[in-house]
């Protein structure tokens, strides 16, 4: 098995992902919210690239969630904080989500065999699911505005490290950037919250009043649930 870690969505090409398992990672905060929402009773999350597309997908009873430049778009039911994806109002509902980076990364995966949403919150479960699929894997870090984000790289390093541990003697080849992210994760593994707080996105979110979001998204393996994209809708992987 081969594992390739891609630093940001701009570096990903659809053909590069063809036939592979892809785990999209946007720790702060899109893929974290996808995990949280499905874990709290949302029946499906539809990731779309633009605000206009949320209208196209919306059916009666659906909620719209997401952000532009960290702010909830006008008329949306939910923003981009994980705490907004825990309430009773999402239970039994579909959420149509658009974010600046994470849902855009999802749109790059149209040729992949299987698409999962990964975060620190479900990293070990992502590793087990990807290993069980028995295909080459791409860990696609969403990044921020086409630039690498530390928190996504740390998550990719954690997933890759966990896959090596679970694989036992099976040979797994990892690209150079993936090896670097594994080393970065090992360096920070006991102080991930601190690392996220000091990252560029962490500092930006803290200034906007979202420090609690950072702490929540920095938790590791809080959930066993792995979102998988089925016919354009993220549902729990079984």
- What letter string, H or E per element, gives the SSE order? EHEHEHEEHEHEHEHHHHEE
**Order of strands across the biggest sheet?**
6-2-7-1-8
Beta strand %: 15-25%
Shape designation: globular
Largest beta-sheet details: 5 strands, parallel
Secondary structure category: alpha/beta
Ends distance: 22 Å
Helicity, as a percent range = 25-40%
**Count of helical stretches:** 10
Average pLDDT works out at 97
Task: Tell how many strands the DSSP assignment holds.
Answer: 10
Low-confidence stretches: none
Radius of gyration: 16 Å
Q: Could you characterize what this model shows?
A:
The protein has a five-stranded parallel beta sheet. Strands 3-5-4 form a three-stranded parallel beta sheet, with helices on both faces. It has 238 residues and is an alpha/beta fold. β9 and β10 form a beta hairpin. It is 38% helix and 18% strand.
Blueprint of the fold:
Layout: E1 2-6, H1 14-17, E2 21-25, H2 30-39, E3 44-47, H3 51-57, E4 63-66, E5 94-98, H4 102-107, E6 114-118, H5 123-133, E7 137-141, H6 150-167, E8 173-174, H7 176-188, H8 192-198, H9 200-207, H10 211-217, E9 227-230, E10 233-236
Parallel strand pairs: 1-7, 1-8, 2-6, 2-7, 3-5, 4-5
Antiparallel strand pairs: 9-10
């Amino acid at each position: 098995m081969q594992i390739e870690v891609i630093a940001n969505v701009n570096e990903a090409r659809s053909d590069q992902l063809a036939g592979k398992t892809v785990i999209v990672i946007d720790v702060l905060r899109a893929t974290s919210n996808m995990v949280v929402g499905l874990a709290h009773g949302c029946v499906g999350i539809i990731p779309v690239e633009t605000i206009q597309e949320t209208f196209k997908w919306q059916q009666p009873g659906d909620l719209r969630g997401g952000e532009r430049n960290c702010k909830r778009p006008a008329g949306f039911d939910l923003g981009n904080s994980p705490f907004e994806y825990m309430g009773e109002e999402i239970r039994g509902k579909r959420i149509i989500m658009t974010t600046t980076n994470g849902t855009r990364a999802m749109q790059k995966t149209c040729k992949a065999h299987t698409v999962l949403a990964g975060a620190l919150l479900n990293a070990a479960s992502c590793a087990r699911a990807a290993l069980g699929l028995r295909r080459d894997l791409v860990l696609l870090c969403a990044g921020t505005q086409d630039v690498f984000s530390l928190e996504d790289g740390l998550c990719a390093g954690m997933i890759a490290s966990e896959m090596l541990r679970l694989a036992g003697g099976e040979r797994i080849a990892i690209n150079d950037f993936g090896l670097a992210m594994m080393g970065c994760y090992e360096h920070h593994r006991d102080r991930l919250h601190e690392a996220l707080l000091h990252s560029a996105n962490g500092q930006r979110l803290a200034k906007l009043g979202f420090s609690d979001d950072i702490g929540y998204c920095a938790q590791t393996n809080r959930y066993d649930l792995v979102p998988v994209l089925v016919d354009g809708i993220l549902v729990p992987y079984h």
